[in-house]
Amino acid sequence: MVEIDKRWLYLVLFLAVFVPMLRPLGLPVDVGKWSSDVFKAVEALPPGSVVLLSTDFTPSAEGEVGATRDVIAKHLVSRGLKAVLVSFVPQGVRQADMVAAIYEAAGKRSGVDFVNLGYVPGGETGIAAFFADIKKTCPSDTKGVPVEQIPLLQGLDTIEGISLIIQFHTTVPGAHEYVRQLVPYGVPLAIVISTGAMATVTVYVQAGQAVGILGGLQAAAEYEKLTGFLGAATKAMDSQSMGYLVFISAIVLGNVFYFAGKRAASRSGAAGGKRI
Amino acid sequence: MRREAPLILSSVIGIVVILEAFVQVPLLTTIAKELMDWVVILSAAALCLASVHLMRTHIMKVSRRSSLWLYSVPLLVVFIVMSGAGLFGGTKAPVFTWLFDRVYAPVDASLYGMYAFFLLSACFRAFRAKNLLATALLVTGIVVMLGRSALGPMLHHQFPTAVEWIFDIPNTAANRGVLIGATLGLMSASFRLLVGIDRSYMAGE
Amino acid sequence: MLKTPVLPFWVLVGFFAFLAFFIKRGRRVDNIRKISGLEALSEAVGRATEMGRPVFYTPGVGEVMVGASSVSTMAAVEILSYVASLTAKYEVDLIVGVSKGDTYAISDATVKQAYAAASKPDAYNPDMVRYYASGYLAACVGEFQRQQPSTILLFGHYTGEIVFLAEAAAQTGAITIGGMERFNQLPMMVASCDHTLVGEEMYVAGAYLSGNTVKLNCVRVQDLWKLAALVLFVAGSVLATFGNTYLVKLFK
Amino acid sequence: MSTDIGVWVAGLLTLATYSYLYKENPAYRLAEYLVVGVGAGYTLALGWQNITAKAIQPIQQGRYLSLLPLLLGVLLFTKLSQKQSWIARYPMAIMVSLGVAVSVRGAVSANLTRQIGATMLPLTSTNNILMVLGTATVLGYFFFTFPANKALTYGSRVGQMFLMVAFGAMIGSVVMLRIAILISRITFVFGDWWGILK
Questions:
Q1: CA triple A160-A162-A167, angle to 5 deg
Q2: Range of the domain at C218
Q3: ipTM computed for the complex
């Protein structure tokens, strides 16, 4: 059997992952329906509309939905949309800060163009209270400014003043609680979620309770393509795709070598066959 | 007696803990709760024993200058510094966290990052269409890889659906079959361990 | 007095009663299906003897005292006992790599016992069972390269590291035999090892290797109950097809 | 490029670890021995915390029952002696029993009865039929003591097929995760440390 030194395989895999990080290849990203639905929902909003970003995710989900957070924030800024930031998970406040940073970097002002209302405890009950009366549930923003002095919140009493909700689901409370509590209000909801948990929320799109889903890094890359803000997700997708190609080529090559030199295969003959 | 007494004692303890899961008796719950604390203490004691063993082995290596003894020196140094800092300064001591973050964590994370290379090597060797079974492994492996990457949908839009199906049906079925068998095996082994049929760690005299 | 659901309790009691009955009756059990991984085990130790290279054994990363891994770790310890008796008999070097304190204590006692039982207590050496703590993976793969064992045996409870461990073992050219019960990591072992004991096979290993009638009777009971489980869920499915959900509710 | 010594130590150890991919060498060995030492010290410190919290503090507060497990723990150390090592059988037997008991009490319901119940599906769709058939044949593969017959042979053959499909699928599905982790490691070395990547 033809033996290749496995170290060549390692080198090829390393390069396949590393090179796209240096120089993104811009491999075509196939945009799914759910991602484009979210994109369209944002595009359809007239400038000046208020979007609620509920960053209910912990740092451990950063790799999966962090890129989505960034590209959505950039998209909102570019469309001139205002953002109310809130989190129902304690660690989510830091994520909201990162959205705020993107707004600030674009010269937007806290209190006028965006506001970070911080953490709201209480899980699903907290969500219900927030929907019913935003200002009562959050007496001040994270900078300590009382809600009465925040221009953005004037005229915004219940969740009905919000044009679109973008919720980052990774834990409890999350999308399920949102969907349940949103029933009386009918505000459109978009869900950002990790790939692994996607299957649990697809029913909401089918039932019309959510406008779309952005699942994992793949969706972030799709959104980056839609908006033109190419970033971390696009790069990572290139690396991922090239990595996959290496794996598949290795398997094909392994088989080619195997059939080319079948006779000499006796030693590692057990490999891949019936070995359980 | 040296064999039977510990066995009988431990069997009783085991049965109490098992019963507590199924029977509603307050006394049993109290005892079982107490025993659960024993788990923590005993496993910590075993850890101490293992650590003593570790130190003894490496001190021996250094004193006998046996092969690789030179590496045992840094091992002993970091072990003593780390456990000393942990014991006296608590787990928030700066030395403790520095060694953890700057020595342990990067090596651990790097090993974790190396899995990809070894998975590649395993795929290269194992995914060979030698017979029907191996071909089944190969084909599903490739289908899933394609379906989970951005490449699959480019080839055919049904790829992700096919992957979902493989996980929902054949994978779940196989998982269940293995699980039911393995659980019966586990129950049987537990019985043997509890009544002392399997006692390789203390058989003989 | 019983907590709901009560079914698991009666299943457990019934199963233990069956075991006790079959053990008491003590009939011989023949026709054991061949398990290639276990057949290969003594051969693999024999190979180590011929090559004069050590056997490396690891009972995994499981803890004896943690529920999720306890029994599979103890099953690995049973196999270790058999392997240690062989290495004692053939006077082959044995290295046992462990990562947890309690597993270390039990493994060490087991190896010591096995050497004593083989009348080679002097051949036992405390350095045989090595405690690597959380440096387990790094240390195991390091030892693979340095010691070049002729046989590497991986049994017990593993998590993600198995893909690295098993493949690094295979790359040394050693005969590798593995066994575990966790389904989601099993495939990596199957991909890399020469032989793999899947799920229940690992729990049967002790009986299979020892040929002990008592233990084989336990395997017999497992088989009967497996058959019962099979009949039950097929019956439940057929009933459900015709709208009768009695069994489905019972097993919920 | 970073000027933080901590990043340098971490970075050098990262490279030392990756050098294993080429071959086992002194740099890797040093990283290996260091990680064993630090890891053992770390777990020991945590273990000690547990002993303090679960035994020593309660005893100081007059809960003398906690002396019992502590004593058992101390008895474990008789293993180190030649003559008295039989005493260690008490703690060891108890350790095994406790672990096994905790293990088996949870397994019956979650992994046996509920799995059997979940497999009872109305045989009205191809998927349901495949599910029942798959579970049955895979289970059939694990019959050890029945005399060989045709049904068993063919059944377990089909079961093996299901197993292989499942194994292939799982191997395929971890590829993405493994690559993602590799990406984050490369980002650390070339981004945080060397500053080549942004």
A1: 110
A2: 7-29+213-250
A3: 0.89
Q: Are C53 and C162 found together in one domain?
A: yes
Contact A276 C198 (CB under 8 A): yes
| Amino acid letter, residue A171 | T
Closest CA to A248 of B49, B152, C235, C77: B152
The DSSP letter of residue D145 is S
Is residue C76 in some structural domain? yes
Which of B114, B118, B187 is opposite residue C15, by nearest beta carbon? B187
Name every chain D residue with its beta carbon within 8 A of the beta carbon of A10.
Answer: 21
Residue D198 reports pLDDT greater than 70: no
**What CA–CA distance (Å, rounded) separates B71 from B90?**
27
A276 with C190: Cβ contact below 8 A: yes
Q: Tens of pLDDT along B156-172?
A: 878 878 888 898 899 99
Does C237 contact D121 at a Cβ distance shorter than 8 Å?
yes
Residues C174 and C220 in one domain: no
Quick check: is C97 in a domain?
yes
Q: Per residue in A163-191, pLDDT tens?
A: 999 999 988 888 988 998 898 898 999 99
Provide the shortest C-alpha distance from residue B153 to chain A (in Å). 7
The answer to whether the Cβ–Cβ distance between D197 and A22 falls below 8 Å is yes
> What's the whole-model pTM score?
0.85
Q: What is the pLDDT of residues C158-212, one digit of tens each?
A: 988 999 999 999 999 999 999 998 888 899 999 999 999 999 999 999 999 999 9
Work out whether strand C175-180 and strand C151-157 pair parallel, antiparallel, or are unpaired.
parallel
Examine the domain organization and report whether C113 and C53 are in the same domain.
Answer: yes
The answer, yes or no, to whether residue A271 has pLDDT greater than 50, is no
Residues of chain D positioned with their CB less than 8 A from the CB of C31: 145-148
The confidence score (pLDDT) of residue B141 equals 92
What is the domain class of A33-229 according to CATH? alpha beta
- B29-83: pLDDT as tens digits: 999 989 988 999 999 999 999 999 999 999 999 999 998 999 999 999 999 999 9
Confirm whether B108 is domain-assigned: no
Domains held by chain B: number: 2
Query: How many CB pairs (< 8 A) connect A and C?
Result: 17
C197 contacts on A by Cβ (under 8 Å): 276
Domain segments of chain A: what residues? 6-22+236-269, 33-229
Q: Which two tokens stand for residue A125?
A: 């009950």
Where chain C has pLDDT below 50, the residues are none
In this prediction, residue D189 has a pLDDT band, given cuts at 50, 70 and 90, of confident
Tell me whether residue C2 is in a domain.
Answer: no
Q: What residues of B are in contact with residue A196 (Cβ under 8 Å)?
A: none
Boundary-marking domain end, from B66, B96, B112: B66
CA–CA distance, D163 with D174 (Å, rounded to integer): 17
Task: Please indicate, yes or no, whether residues C115 and C220 belong to a single structural domain of this protein.
Answer: no
Task: Specify the CATH number for the domain of residue C56.
Answer: 3.40.50
Q: Are residues C172 and C88 in the same domain?
A: yes
Instruction: Tell me if A270 and C194 make a contact (CB, 8 A cut-off).
Output: yes
D147, D138 in Cβ contact below 8 A?
no
Which residues sit opposite C130 in a β-bridge?
C97
* D165 inside 8 A of chain C by CB: no
Predicted confidence (pLDDT) per residue in D126-169, tens digit = 999 999 999 999 999 999 999 888 999 999 999 999 999 999 99
Helix (H, G, I), strand (E, B) or coil at A85: strand
Residue C151 maps to a domain? yes
User: What are the residues whose beta carbons fall under 8 Å from the beta carbon of C238, sequence distance 6 or more?
Assistant: D123
Q: Which of B41, B66, B91 lies at the terminal end of a domain, its last residue?
A: B66
Neighbour tally for D64: CB within 10 Å: 9
Domain count, chain C: 2
Closest D-chain CA to C69:
D103
